[in-house]
UniProtKB/TrEMBL annotation, chain A:
Transmembrane regions listed in the UniProt entry: none
Domain of life: Archaea
Gene3D superfamilies tied to this protein: CPE0013-like
Stated name of the protein: Molybdopterin oxidoreductase, 4Fe-4S cluster-binding subunit
Originating species: Pyrococcus yayanosii (strain CH1 / JCM 16557)
Coiled coil (residue ranges): none
Automatic annotation (TrEMBL), chain B:
Pfam annotation, one family: Pyr_redox_2
Keywords carried by this UniProt record: Oxidoreductase
SUPFAM superfamilies named among the record's database cross-references: FAD/NAD(P)-binding domain (SSF51905)
InterPro entries: FAD/NAD-bd_sf, FAD/NAD-binding_dom, Metab_Enz_Cyan_OpOx_G3PDH
Name of the protein in question: NADH oxidase
Keyword Metal-binding: no
UniProt domain FAD/NAD(P)-binding: residue ranges: 2-295
GO molecular function, one term: oxidoreductase activity
Length: 114, 410
């Protein structure tokens, strides 16, 4: 299986190909630097994303407060995380940076004042 | 009388007000919302501030930092204040009229920094016809509904436009459980940054390049949209299909908000849609400065804030010297594959950042300023990414007349 995508680590945007056989990386092509290569391998073997959403807030100025995961979470965990977030509710006041919950050891942090 | 009235409390206006205050000016910041930050509070994704704060922040976090600084400096801020008009009594005296819940007010000021941002193009502007039904939103409207009010605009979504805003909304919809059925892009290449294009792969969202939505059908609510393929001249080919959906999101670009500026006689550049400015970001009306998306549509908020600061420095110089004292202005002209640029006039008295966009994507290019013998090699240029290029004072000084900027193959 060959994965082909644009590197987003720097603005050069090299097209990188990662060849995978039985979940093992066999070859990486098209990268111009080491950082890009490492990113591409991680993208194929263990892609992670910072996830953001909003949760309802009681008594705040706006009806919701925006949140994000304090660190990137594995891609396959994202739908479970979104279901977890959908059950949350907080009470005002909330400050940006405040931890409002924790999911699988990852902190959920408020990003807006509420 | 104020030294400077800043119109607009988004990132450009906040950065301008902060800088102006730091420079010792007497400043008033006006915003029509009851919260500061412009569109930032609804841009809940990361990707902001890498240049300006040297840290990756979300939109609300970026706004929060600026708000805290405004508070620290005790900058005078008036929210819920919608500016109705600007009048230019003389170069050294302007009047800003605004309406707020307390009534209508006139404030006198020496300078204005106009940072009112941009508006979104809507369905009629891009030639979509059909039934007038519920379920058609601009990307920004949908974003406000979801990320400020917590309301899902629909379940089955088609997005028009593959610019960053459209792609970011595609991710938000997909994350929140809606089905994004397609992103439709008129041009033969995607409009957004590579890191945002990746979103489509993350969620298996099909992208149709060289296609456009031409018709909406439904009763009460959007039911389906008609998509046609276009040729390289963007003409409809007749090859067409329908996509069923309950929501159509229009993300077809931004247009600088310049109505008030036009009314006061500011010259507008048809290429940027914003005013013609010099390297202090001063418009053709002395003492009126402009920054952010009202000047030129930016791709990074960091540049927007940078322009706010630059405009504040211009205002400071204006207030101190009763005008910008430059005797000679050098025109910066657009050459090959430069769709737009700002600023338009350079003094040669300072280093400047040139903000520009190309018309078409190219690889292995040189950005050239032939009259002053400057050349920068770049591996790629894309219309989606703004070029930001530094011209040094001594380089500009080499010009006899105008300077041309062009992007040519190597
Ligand atoms: S591979 Fe290296 S040079 Fe190429 S885009 Fe990625 S980070 Fe940049």
């Amino acid at each position: 299986m060959i994965y082909r995508f644009t590197c987003i680590v720097c603005p050069l945007g090299c097209t990188i190909e990662v060849e995978v056989d039985d979940d093992r990386v066999k070859a990486v092509r098209g990268h111009t630097c080491q950082r890009g290569k490492e990113w591409a391998i991680e993208e194929v073997t263990n892609p992670k994303r910072v996830v953001m959403s909003v949760i309802p807030v009681e008594g705040g100025r706006l009806p919701t407060v925006s949140v994000k995961t304090a660190e990137p979470v594995p891609k396959e965990k994202i739908s479970e995380l979104m279901r977890f977030l959908a059950r949350l509710k907080v009470k005002a006041p909330v400050r940006p940076g405040e931890v409002v919950a924790e999911f699988d050891g990852v902190k959920i942090v408020a990003t807006r004042e509420a | 009388m104020y030294d400077v009235v800043v119109i607009g409390g988004g990132p450009a206006g906040m950065a301008a007000a902060i800088k102006a205050k730091e420079l010792g000016l007497n400043v008033l910041l006006l915003d029509e919302n009851d919260y500061l930050g412009g569109i930032l509070p609804q841009c809940i994704h990361p990707g902001f501030g890498i240049h300006y704060f040297r840290e990756e922040l979300t939109g609300p976090e970026f706004a929060h930092r600026l708000k805290e600084r405004l508070k620290e400096l005790r900058v005078k801020v008036k929210g819920n204040a919608r500016v109705l008009s600007i009048e230019n009594y003389s170069d050294l005296e302007k009047v800003v009229t605004f309406v707020s819940p307390e009534g209508i007010f006139d404030v006198r000021t020496k300078t204005i920094i106009y940072a009112a941002g941009a508006r979104e193009r809507h369905a009629f502007e891009i030639g979509i016809v059909g039934d007038r039904v519920a379920g058609i939103y601009t990307a920004g409207e949908a974003q406000t509904l979801m990320d400020i009010y917590g309301i899902m605009p629909g379940k089955e979504i088609v997005i028009v436009g593959s610019g960053d805003v459209g792609l970011i909304m595609a991710r938000r919809f997909a994350l929140e459980g809606a089905r994004v059925k397609a992103v439709i892009e008129l041009m033969p290449y995607p409009g957004g940054l590579a890191r945002n294009i990746m979103i489509l792969r993350d969620f298996n969202i099909p992208l149709y390049l060289s296609h456009k939505v031409v018709e909406v059908r439904g009763r009460g609510r959007v039911k389906r949209v008609k998509v046609v393929k276009v040729d390289e001249n963007l003409r409809e080919t007749g090859e067409e299909f329908w996509i069923s959906c309950d929501t159509l999101i229009i993300s077809a670009g931004l247009i600088p908000n310049v109505k008030l500026l036009k009314e006061v006689g500011v010259e507008i550049d048809p290429a940027t849609g914003g005013p013609v400015v010099n390297d202090r970001l001063e418009t053709s009306v002395p003492g009126i400065f402009v920054a952010g998306n009202a000047l030129v549509i930016n791709d990074l908020v960091d540049y927007v804030a940078e322009q706010g600061e630059l405009a504040a420095e211009g205002a400071k110089e204006f207030v101190e010297n009763e005008g910008i004292g430059t005797k000679r202005w050098i025109r910066l002209k657009r050459g090959q594959n430069v769709r737009l640029l700002a600023p338009h006039y350079l003094s040669g008295e300072r280093d400047v950042w040139i903000y520009a966009r190309v018309s078409k994507p190219m690889e292995n290019v040189a950005v050239e300023f032939p009259e002053i013998g400057k050349r920068i090699r770049l591996p790629v240029v894309k219309p989606a990414e703004m070029l930001r290029i530094r011209l040094r004072k001594k380089e500009i000084a080499r010009a006899k007349g105008a300077i041309t900027m062009e992007v040519v193959p190597l």
